[in-house]
């Protein structure tokens, strides 16, 4: 692959920049929120948009149905003598809430100061679209691909990819490749790209605490029953200490420490803590003692409360003892931690610390 051909490809990309961006904006307008069933039709619409786009690029396409959202597959075969490259991406996006924090409608893309603002612009519609347009520009130059190319775009990444493992096992021959490219992460800093060789895993939980069978008036029943919100706060406060150490029994037993070579690689990165604090709008970075910030975000497991609900939330006062309360909790896993083991430890610990007055 010579520099002259690469230069011509970039010329085509620059010439068609506006058209490519308009096409991306159309894609971003589709609210493909996988976590919310009310968007189910839109997720399907995004999959069909991809199939049509891949077909225009000359690819053989197929939609694979799952128990939930479909997986899109595209293939462009060039020669048995060439290696095969498999590109992974996901077309589903996170829920856009809270909407009042957005400057523009998250599904009505806006371009400001050279940046596209929309849900999915950087996770992961923008990245998978870049691969598609690279293929588009290459073909417009009349060049033959130096590889056989396969695309796999799923619609469930933001909910933990529940259908992906079975799909991979059931389609091993179809998905055979010499290399896989996944563009679904961060560059280290502006102008500094990164090759990511691993990501932390995920265990996700919904915790619900039940008290009385109906909401009660706090004036008539306060002091007689345990408030589920109080119980939930008690439980959540005992998941971690104030130094961000996870308190679940035996949680760290299987955690592998980074070796010295990896820690040295981390130390050599040009990490600007002050710039990151300013970007995030926080006074200081926070995390587990004994580890650098980049070590904590890469090599250490973490636990976070992602959402919490219970009681009266609307304007004014309603003095109730709610019948139930709940929270969503995620745990990021590192190598050698098993999802099933961590799940068992989490559930056992909750049962151990939960007040007996609620369930």
TrEMBL record:
Superkingdom of the source species: Bacteria
InterPro entries linked to this entry: Cyt/Met_Dipeptidase, Peptidase_M20
Keyword set, alphabetical order: Hydrolase, Metal-binding, Protease
GO molecular function term, any single one: metal ion binding
Pfam family, one: Peptidase_M20
GO BP field: proteolysis
Classification via NCBIfam families: PRK09104.1
Name of the protein in its database record: M20/M25/M40 family metallo-hydrolase
Species of the source: Thermodesulforhabdus norvegica
